[in-house]
Amino acid sequence: MTELRQLLASVPEVVVAPSAAIVDGIEASVGYLGSDAALDSIADDTYWPKWDSPWWHMLLLFELGEAARIPERTVTRMIQGLEALPLKTFPLRPEELAGLDPHTAITCHCALGCMVQILAACGVEVDRALPWARPWFVRYQMSDGGLNCDSDAYLVTDECPSSMVGTVAPLEAMLLGEPGRWTAPERAFVDRAAAFLIERRLMLGSPTRHNAEERVAAPTWLAPCFPRFYFYDVLRGLTALVTWAERCDTWLPAAAIEPVCTHLVTTFPDGAIRLGRDATAESMTRLRADDGTWTRRVPASRFPLLDAVSTVGAVSASATRQWAGTRAALLRLFDAGQIRV
Fold it and tell me: φ and ψ at 277, to 5 degrees?
């Protein structure tokens, strides 16, 4: 453990200023979110289309630490849109949908986890605005502490095909609450979700048949991405786990974090996180057709700020800042005796 602490302490502090393109992109996204067109888009659908509906502009501004610049009326309209969803549950069987479109009539765990964080950063009292959100996460936690946005995963009886992607945003959202005010089920949720990340060593895909695709995707998690939206990389998982340990005043097993910490230090010895992939590239989206139905088309649209922050190989100011904060938190945990063999 001494070696790991020394390794983390050896990384220099680095401050990365945002580029002119990012600064201009922030202004453009703030301007768009204040427009009537953005409000109309939310009224049409809170989430679709990727990647250029207000949802994604809001989420990217949040990830950049600029949530306070999201116009208040846009935040209000988003809350109204979420409250207007026909179902505020996650249907596991076709009959629970009652003939509704599963892509537009409901939300999912990772989407809701992201939006809870956005709204909280905008100063919204989320438990009052969306009283069904925190109970949602508790309700859909699986037996190993994870969640999965694939409803079919909940019908599997001989294994537990939970998902890193479906788990990390709900955990982040739940960790925003005050530990002293958590209900017993909420505290159990964060502890079990953290145990899920620990069991997966922050980097292992699902061992199950049903979620075998995650094992294929898992090697890409070592390559940082930004923005993450609802995607996963090991820095995001490590940050969530360290936040849990500090907020809950508990300890972490060194074996659960050492491989990821060592990977990040050796890959980025100067402390500057360079993006290894664009998780939003080559994506499909749903667009509303002239007859009012939603169809799937490619490619998904992008916007200037998304392009400016997601260049593969470029140093990410946001990811670099997060890595510095997570390293500092890890050193505090080491010094407090909260990282153990």
Answer: -165, 160
Contact in structure between 96 and 105 (CB atoms under 8 Å): no
Helix (H) / strand (E) containing 287:
strand 285-288
Return d(Cα 31, Cα 66) in angstroms, integer.
13
Q: Are 163 and 199 in contact (CB under 8 A)?
A: no
Q: Identify whether the C-beta of residue 254 lies closer than 8 Å to the C-beta of residue 339.
A: yes
Quick check: 339 and 333 in contact, CB under 8 A? yes
pLDDT tens-digit readout, 177-210: 889 999 999 999 999 999 999 999 999 999 999 9
- Cα-based torsion angle of the residue sequence 200, 277, 110, 158 in order, rounded to the nearest 10 degrees: -40
Does the pTM surpass 0.85? The reply is yes
Q: Tell me the per-residue pLDDT of 259-277, one tens digit each, with 9 for 90 and over.
A: 999 999 999 999 999 999 9
Please state whether the peptide bond connecting residue 299 to the residue before it is cis, i.e. omega within 30 degrees of 0.
yes
User: 340: part of which helix (H) or strand (E)?
Assistant: strand 339-340
Query: Within 13 Å, how many C-alpha atoms sit on residue 331's CB side?
Result: 12
C-alpha pair distances (Å), 205 with each of 161, 175, 212, 329: 10, 23, 8, 26
CATH of 2-12+20-340, one of 3.60.60, 1.50.10, 1.20.1300, 1.25.40: 1.50.10
Q: Cis bond leading into 185, ω under 30°?
A: no
Find how far residue 129's CA is from the centre of its chain: 20
Q: What SS3 state is found at 154?
A: helix
The DSSP result for 174-235, as a single string, is HTTS-GGG--HHHHHHHHHHHHHHHHTTTTPPP-SSTTHHHHHHGGGGGS-BSS-TT---HH
